[in-house]
Amino acid sequence: MTTISFDTHEFVKKLQSVGFTQEQAEVFASEHRRIIEDSLVTKDHLDMRLRELEYRLIIKMGAMIMAAVISIVALVKFL
User: Fold this and answer.
1) What is the pLDDT at residue 26?
2) Residues 54 and 31 in one domain
3) One domain, residues 25 and 47
4) CA distance linking residue 60 with residue 67, whole number of Å
5) Is the domain of 36 the same as that of 50?
6) Enclosing H/E stretch for 68
């Protein structure tokens, strides 16, 4: 598992060095961290989404095979 860390303390220090107040820098760093965390996709989440996609594909393939079998049976009956 890959861990991504965001050093908010270091980020706050950098923001303060370019003119942000302590309060502004802390709020900005906090929101920046929240946005990063909300945007990341975990391996578990990706695995779950891939399983969902696999199940949907299996269902669609099954429906297509069933439609083909029904079509062939109907053609054989009428011929």
Assistant:
1) 93
2) no
3) no
4) 11
5) no
6) helix 43-78
